[in-house]
Predict the structure.
Amino acid sequence: MIYDALVIGGGPAGATTAWLLAHAGWSVVLLEKASFPRRKVCGEFISATTLPLLQVLGLDEMFLAMSGPPVREVGLYAGSHILTAPMPVNHKVDTGWGRALGREHLDYILLNGAKRAGVDVIQSCSATGLTRDNGILICTAERFDPDTKIEVQARVIIAAHGSWEKGNLPTHISRQKPEPSDLLGFKAHFTQTELPIDLMPLLAFPGGYGGMVNTDHGRMSLSCCIRRDMLQQCRGESDTYHRAGDAVLAHIMKNCEGVQRALQRAQTQGPWLSAGPIQPGIRTLYKDGIFAAGNAAGEAHPVVAEGISMAMQGAWLLAELLIARRTQILCGNINEIGRVYTQAWRRYFAPRLHISAIFAHLAMRPTATKILLPMFQHIPVLLTICSRFSGKTTKIVPVYP
């Protein structure tokens, strides 16, 4: 069988793209290497601007029922400073408030929604190579259980495998040798915390940055990025911390009084997760019939807490374009679609990547934080303005001729 589309990766970007295409009548197959549900390093926050898309997917009520409390305030924890300000809102469109939902739950409901829409989902399966035959893309893949090789043919391929995945696909990022400046990601859940229920603070500390948010089932999620050299320094300062996550947490609490207060009676739920190094930047969005979505398309520094929203909104952008130009695809005129997608994606998301890089580098540097803190203290609304620049009110509604 020749599918209209093959989606590689079943996370938010892949599942969203597959669902929208299948709902429009496309034949779609999705390959995902992991079994769900599964935990993943992620900040878990989803901006209010993504709620209209969840409504399109028919998942808005389920999301609101499962997710954590609405986030109405942003904050900054740096040293002894604990600053808060209102979350920015889009006064032209009432989309409610953003919320957080664990990836083990979000990915599961999105992928099940894609299945219900008619997507053929193959899990425990990893794509290993691509070839082309008379305009048709042929993907070879390996199933882990049972251990077999399969072949999938499609007219279009959407690579939504994330940025940390290793592989031989053109959209996989080549691994570089470890550098001191590499940013490594960590995440853990906590219960019985003192974090205000509607607050999502940015954590600024030497050599890294992070965030906290109340998520589902009474849990609080703490996620962060830290430079490799700083992590090594933290682990070398004491023999107490045998696990990297514990050393990172000790470093954060030492440099953020707000985190100390929030976690003074907290209990860690489950082990620390780690991943990386992260590689922020814009990738090749289209090449030879292969469209990139999610982090395979572009990755912002997690400091802006827009990763999931960008992945899903970018998938919406791509799916609507493919649906609108289906006749062109059937006629083999796909490169023009790739050009339009590249321009649209950059227009909507490149500013967020640039802003996130600025915020990340300022947060990691104690000197910069020390200079900027008095300004935020005297004008707290600057936190709201910065959140607006990060994309918290940018509503993506794809419309293509």
